[in-house]
Write a structure and sequence with these properties.
Elements: E1 3-6, E2 17-20, H1 24-27, E3 36-39, E4 54-60, H2 72-83, E5 84-95, H3 101-104, H4 125-129, E6 137-146, E7 151-159
Parallel strand pairs: 1-2, 1-4, 2-3, 4-5
Antiparallel strand pairs: 5-7, 6-7
Length: 160
């Protein structure tokens, strides 16, 4: 597969492997016709994917739902880095912690600002000052506010 859509919910991407903890096709069968889907709990790591398996990772409104205890954000990013090919790209969308949207959902485990992913980019001030936070490195290719600022969308390119 060229790409994986992690925490897909009922928004599958055709041509990608769509993954969620919940059996999403059960709730929206019409959206999953002809769609590759696997039910996987991403809180159990390492994830059951081979190294360098995907050219693209998409995670829209899912990262904040994963277990955030004990530095899990760093470990999750290391798993994304591991499953991406050397020229792979990840697009991650999360609620903006500066808005009530981030705190409204009782299942949110982590919160993010426009600088949360800087820790993984050695070209940012935070990434340069704290390179020991993670062995995985990404180039922060783009950060944009979406949904009127309620969400943040990051495009990250793997640095091998």
């Amino acid at each position: 597969m060229a790409g994986v859509n992690l925490c897909c919910g009922i928004r599958p991407i055709p041509g990608f492997l769509n993954v969620d903890k919940v059996n999403c096709p059960e709730f929206a069968p019409d959206r999953f016709v002809g769609i590759a889907f696997e039910q996987i709990d991403l809180n159990i790591r390492p994830w059951p994917f081979d190294d360098a398996m995907f050219d693209a990772v998409v995670m829209r409104d899912g990262l904040e739902h994963l277990d955030g205890q004990g530095g899990a954000f760093v470990y999750i990013m290391e798993e994304i880095w591991r499953i991406l090919t050397s020229k792979g790209e990840a697009v991650i969308q999360v609620p903006n912690a500066a808005t009530p949207n981030a705190f409204t959902d009782p299942t949110h485990q982590m919160w993010f600002t426009e600088h949360s992913f800087d820790y993984f980019d050695p070209e940012t001030i935070i990434g340069a000052l704290l390179p020991h936070y993670s062995r995985c490195k990404f180039k922060l290719a783009k950060m944009r506010f979406t949904d009127g600022g309620a969400t943040l969308q990051f495009t990250l390119r793997k640095i091998p």
